Each structure stands twice: as structure tokens, then as C-alpha cells.
């Protein structure tokens, strides 16, 4: 049996993060197939997603568009939950093994980064 995803952070969600967490969780519970979390670099998107994973305790697959971001996400998520078993299934995919799977995509566009 897998250990639960327990968020290990000295920080609490702040600013727009609590609303984003709530809305993402509601979307997942409502069965939305796709959701987009937009934010500039350093705005806490990964931390926001880690909070959603911790709150819902559902199997999660984190996708990244390239090897560099996959490695970065792997490192950050591993820091957020050191007791959770993480693995990189391919050069651009990080997964947590569990019974049921939910997927959250983080999309960045040039427009968001300006």
C-alpha cells in the first residue's frame, strides 16, 4: 500500500493560491478532463499543484514539456513529499503510483510569461 502524499513545507498557500487550489479541486471532483493553471515564473504553480495532490490524495501524473522541466519538477515534488515514492517513467514524465489516476496539466505560454 502506498504512503499518502503528505506536503512537507514551511509555507502556507497565500495570495491567489488558496482560490486556485479550491477551483482546481472542484474541477477534479466535477470530472473536468482539462484545467489550466496560469502563472508567471516563481508564482508558486508547483506548490499550488502539490497542495491539490495533498488535499485530494489521488494518484497523480505530472507531465513536463521537456527533460529540464521534468527534472526540476521531480526535484521540487520530491522535496514537498520526501516519503512519497516518486519515479521518472520517461525523460519527460514524473509519476506517483496509486490506485486511481487524476491528471493535472500546467500550461505556460509566452503571453503568461510577459
What would you note in describing this structure?
By secondary structure, the chain is an alpha+beta fold. It has a single domain (17-113), classed as Rossmann fold. It contains 4 helices and 4 strands. The chain has helices spanning 17-29, 45-56, 67-80, 110-113; strands at residues 60-63, 87-90, 93-95, 102-104. Helix 1 packs across helix 2 (45-56). The protein starts with 16 loop residues before the first helix and ends with a helix.
**Major β-sheet strand ordering:** 2-3-1-4
Give the total of beta strands.
Answer: 4
* CATH classification class: Alpha Beta
Strand content: 5-15%
CATH architecture: 3-Layer(aba) Sandwich
CATH-level-4 superfamily name: P-loop containing nucleotide triphosphate hydrolases
Number of helices: 4
Describe the main β-sheet briefly: 4 strands, mixed
| Domain module count | 1
pLDDT averaged residue by residue: 79
Report the order of strands and helices. HHEHEEEH
List the topology elements.
Blueprint: H1 17-29, H2 45-56, E1 60-63, H3 67-80, E2 87-90, E3 93-95, E4 102-104, H4 110-113
Parallel strand pairs: 1-4
Antiparallel strand pairs: 1-3, 2-3
Helix pairs in contact: 1-2
GO molecular function: ATP binding; ATP hydrolysis activity; DNA binding
Pfam families: ResIII
Organism: Salmonella diarizonae
Short descriptors:
single chain, 114 residues, alpha+beta, Rossmann fold, 4-stranded mixed beta sheet, 4 helices, 4 strands, 38% helix, globular
Task: Summarize it.
This protein has helices spanning 17-29, 45-56, 67-80, 110-113; strands at 60-63, 87-90, 93-95, 102-104.
